[in-house]
Amino acid sequence: MQVLQHGKQVEEEATRDFLLEIQADKYCRTILDSTVECPKSAKQLSQDCNIPISTAYRRVQQLHDHKLLSISGMINEDGKKYFLYKSKVKGIISCFSNGKIQVKIIPNTTMTAA
Asked: Could you tell me which residues come within 8 angstroms of residue 74 by beta carbon, excluding any fewer than 6 positions away?
């Protein structure tokens, strides 16, 4: 069964190009998928997704810069700050037809305060 998902059409070429890069990057895909339901720290992402910690931090920053991840800060029992990341998107759909690329973002409807 096919499910029709409504999303936002991306018009800006630079944003479309970046979203296509995200789809091709296994770490970015893994981070977005892992944080759809519940927020995670970079350390949790590194462990859960088997991503080197430095790569997790780089990809998280890249995704946040392009408004695909939200960040919430917390302070643990030791008084240290840490951040939790949550995907703002549930999916990215792309289609190449007649020499044109269309990209649509499916928003994450499970967005809640962390």
From this structure: 81, 82, 83, 84, 114
